[in-house]
Amino acid sequence: MSFLTFKGGIHPPEFKEPTAHLPIEKAVEPKVVVIPLQQHIGAPAEAIVAVGDTVAIGQKIGEAKGFVSSPVHSSVSGTVKAIEKRPSVSGEDVLSIVIEADGKNEVHPSVSPKGKLEDLKAAEILEIIKEAGIVGMGGATFPTHVKLSPPPDKKVDTIILNGAECEPYLTADHRLMLETPEDVVYGLRAMMKVVGVEKGYIGIESNKPDAIDVMKKAVANYPNIQVVGLHTKYPQGAEKQLIWACVKKEVPSGRLPMDVGVIVNNVGTAAQVAKTLKTGMPLVERITTVSGKAIKNPKNLLIKVGVSIKDIVEECGGYHVAPSKIIMGGPMMGIAQHNDEVSLTKGSSGLLFFTEEEAKLPDEKACIRCGKCVEICPAFIQPVHINNFARKDMMESAEKYRALDCIECGSCSYVCPSKINLLQGIRLAKRYIIAKKRKQNK
User: Fold this and answer.
1) 255 and 135 in contact (C-beta within 8 Å)?
2) What number is the average pLDDT over the span 221-228?
3) Burial class (CB in 10 A: 0-12, 13-18, 19+), 301
4) What's residue 99's pLDDT?
C-alpha cells in the first residue's frame, strides 16, 4: 500500500504506546455532571429545563439558538440542581446545567431507533443529526448538520473521514476504528446520503496498520468508499492537509473545503451518527484518551459528557505525582486547564496529565533566521514574520501576511531552534483581525 501526505509538517514523538493497545472501557457512572450550554462552535444553547426538574438520559436540556449552534442533552438521569456559570474548557466561565444523578439510568422516551438507512430520506437524516446535537468530535466541535448543509452553489462530491489521529498521545479514534468499524462506515454512508455524494474516503496514518486492515475489510462491500493510507506526520489530520493527501485538491487561501467540493468529518463523528440512527441516543458520551506520566493508569474511556476531570483522575487510580500541567485534547493543539473541576465536553478527545519534566518549556532565545518555521508550515505562511508583527502591534501587516490562514497546529513553535512561541503571537494577531472584521460587519 502506498502512503500519501502533504507538503510540510513535523514528526514529534508519538507517545501512543501507553494506550494504543488498551480496549475502550466504560467509565463509572458519575454522581454529578456539569453540562455546559456552550460546547460547540457557534451560539450557545439555551436552557429549557429549570432547577428542580427531573431529567432522563438523552433528554434535550438545551435548545440550539441559531443555525450555527447545537442542542445539548442530559447524559444521566436525575435532578437539575443548578443552572449557573461554571469553569469550562475554554478557560472562561460558561452557563452550565448541574445534574445530580439518581443512579437509575432511565432513558428518555424520545430515544428510539430512527429506522434503516435505506428507508430514511436525506432531509430526515440531517434533522436527526441536528436534533442529536452531533458536532465534530475530533476537537473542533463544529455542528455537523451545518457542515452537511452546503449552499446550493457549492457542489460537493466527496466526503473524507479523518482517522489520522496525528496528535501525540491520543488513541481514542484508533480504538474506535478497531472496535466498531461498522459504525464508522455506516455513519459515513449516512452523511454521503445527506449530501448526495458518491465518493467517500477514510484517511488513516501508517502507524495504525491494524486499523487500516480492519477498515479495509469494513468497506469491502462498498466500492465507492476507499481507505487511504497516510504517512505518519503532524498535522496530517488537519482538513486542508487531509484533502490534499487524499484527493490532491488545494483549498485556496480564505476558502473552505466545500469550495473544492469536499466535506471533512472525524471518524468519531461518523460513528456517533450511526449510533444515533440505530438507537436514537443523542451525543451524550464520547471516547477520551487519558494519558501522561502523571496519571497512574492511562486508559481509553467511554465518558459521559459533563463528568469532571477530578472524577476521571479517580477512575484512573489517581496521580503518580501532582501534575504540572493538565491538557484537554492533544499536546499540540489542546488547551491547558487551570483546575480539575472542569467538565469533559463533546470535543474532549484527550485528557493529558504531564509531569514537570513533560510540561517544561525552554526559554526563548533570539531568532537566528534559519527559516525552519517557513519550511515546515503546512499552511504555507511565514510564522516568524506574523509573530513579529503581532508582538509589535502591527496587525494590518500580520493580516497581509495571511495570519488567518494559520491552522494553529503549533508546528512552527515545535521546530524553532530558538524555542520562540510563534503560535502565541499568531493567535494574538488572528483574534485581533477576526474581532476587527466582526466590528466592521456590524
Assistant:
1) no
2) 98
3) buried
4) 98
d(CA 365, CA 59): 53
Query: Confidence band (pLDDT; 50, 70, 90) for 1?
Result: low
- Cell match 537566528: residue? 368
246 is in an annotated binding site: no
Alpha helices in 221-294 (DSSP H): 239-247, 267-279
**pTM, full prediction:** 0.95
Angle at the Cα of 277 from the Cα atoms of 272 and 283, rounded to 5 degrees: 35
CA distance 396 to 344: 37
377 a known binding residue? yes
Residue 169 has pLDDT above 80, yes or no: yes
The verdict on whether residue 409 carries a ligand-binding annotation is yes
- Residue 166 annotated as binding? no
In which band, very low, low, confident or very high, does the pLDDT at 441 lie, cut at 50, 70 and 90? Answer: confident
The domain locations on the chain are 118-279, 372-441
> What is d(CA 251, CA 83) in angstroms, rounded to the nearest whole number?
42
Q: Which residues make Cβ contacts (< 8 Å) with residue 389, sequence separation at least 6?
A: 395, 397, 398, 401, 429
- Average pLDDT score over residue span 161-186: 98
- Looking at domain 118-279, its CATH superfamily turns out to be NADH-ubiquinone oxidoreductase 51kDa subunit (3.40.50.11540)
- Report the first-to-last Cα separation within the chain, whole angstroms: 52
**C-alpha cell belonging to residue 48:** 429549557
Q: Is 367 marked within a binding site?
A: yes
pLDDT band at 439 (very low <50, low <70, confident <90, very high): confident
User: Is the C-alpha dihedral spanning 345, 61, 316, 339 positive or negative?
Assistant: positive
Q: Provide the residue type at 295 as one letter.
A: I
